[in-house]
Structure formats: C-alpha cells, structure tokens
Amino acid sequence: MRSTSVVRIMQRMIIAGLVALTACTPRDQAAAAGTGTPLTVFAAADLRFALADVARLYREQGGDSLVLVFGSTGDLTTQIINGAPADVFFAANAEAIDSLAVRTMIVDSTRRVYAIGRLALIARCPTVQRVSQTSSAPCPAPARLEEVAAASVQSIAIADPAHAPYGRAARQTLERAGLWPAVEKRIVLGANVSQAYQFVSTGNADVGLVALSLVARDSVLGHTLVDASLHDPLRQTLAVLTASTHQASAAKFLAFLNTPAAKNAMHGFGFAEDAP
C-alpha cells in the first residue's frame, strides 16, 4: 500500500466497476429499500454516510425509494457524460455541475449548493484497538498539520486530486502549508475520498486528509479539523439531470433536503451551509 503505482492500479479496478456500485453498505441498502421505481442518485464519496442517513429519513417519512451510487465527483461526472442513467447528481464541488451545464445535461433551476465540506486530519489506530474497539476514547489524530511531515509518518492517504475535489483540497492544504515537497513521495492516492479514509481506518496508511463527514461520527478514529483557509472552499453542488425520467420525484427529494430533519442530519456529519 506504500506504492502510489499499486494504488493507481487499484483505482482502475474500482472505476471499472463504478456504475454497478449501488447502496454498498447495509445502511445504504436500508435507505434504498422500498417499492416502485427508485430514484437513482449519483453522489460524491464524502456523502457515503450522510446521504444514506438522509435517505433513511426520507423513506421513513414516506418518500420514494432511492438507489445511491457513490464515487469520486470526477468519475461520476464522466459516467454521466457517457450516458450512465441517473436522476440527481450530488457533486463535491461546483465545477462538475458547471461541466454538465455547458452540455445542457442539468435542469438549471434545480442547481444549488447543498453543503460546504470540510477536511479533517486522521491517523491510524494500533491494530489491537482498531479490532477490539474497546477503548473509551478514539485514537488521537495529529494535533497540528505539520506533524504529517514527521519522519515516523511513512504514508499519507488522500483522494486522487485528478478526480476528487477532496483530493485537490488536500493537496492545496499541504502546498499552502509548505509541506508538499517534504511529503509528496509519501502520498498514497485513493480512487475517492472514501477509499482514502479506508486506507487509514484499516491501518494501511499512517495518516490521511479526508472529508470530515466520513469521520464526524467515527468512534474509533479521532480527527483534527483542517483550517479551511488552506484550501479553496468545497462548495458541494447538486442538480437534477435533464435525462431523468423521474423529475417530479427528484423535486420532492430536493424539497426534503430543506427540512429541519435533513439539515440536522447533514450538520451531524460536519457539513455547513455557508463557507467559514
């Protein structure tokens, strides 16, 4: 896992099966359960837990069933351009939606920023604590960003900046902090930010710069919030796709996002409504 080339090979394997990735966790499956024609939602990987929670709440209140498809924003955008069927796209930035807008592939009136994302610094747990999860306190994260440059840190997981907005934000953070030259050779690239988080949570990377939303409720891994001024704001943007044949259902789901229940769920995973 130390080799960037090995990770790139893994990325190609993951991307090849991306369209088939739907509701991959039990939590996602519960959220997507239901009858009738489901609404297909493509979503950035940082929403893996948060959107599943929102989907569950939506179903509990009588909303339509959902199929959640997670991946890096860049890869999902490419899939949509190439004709992958989806009704709604939750991107991790605005640029992805822009690229679809110039191709008239979104319903312009539905476009909006749904959240501001944040980066968090995490570190792997000792194997015993990671497996047993008996400790009353989560594993501590480095208190300062500068600690990632320590000689004891052999691998730093981030999402691939070529495909993932959180990866670009992670690289910007390291560059603006003046740390990139010292750590570049230790960077381990995940196909998306969820995989970067998994590298650390499974002990295959020493530290990681990942989405706060993936660790906000993690009882094992502690985290340190990254100074938002070190990277461009993560203005996470959504839109309904013009190719959708379920636009009325999509509109109902987007309306639900404005309810207190949905907003509280998003806030609980560390998302803000305005840039800090």
From TrEMBL:
Sites where the protein binds molybdate: 73, 193
InterPro entries: AvModA-like_subst-bd, ModA, ModA/WtpA
Listed GO MF terms: metal ion binding; molybdate ion binding; tungstate binding
Recorded superkingdom: Bacteria
Keyword check for Signal: yes
GO biological process: molybdate ion transport
The protein's assembly and partners: The complex is composed of two ATP-binding proteins (ModC), two transmembrane proteins (ModB) and a solute-binding protein (ModA).
Name listed for the protein in its UniProt record: Molybdate ABC transporter substrate-binding protein
Species in which this protein is naturally found: Gemmatimonas aurantiaca
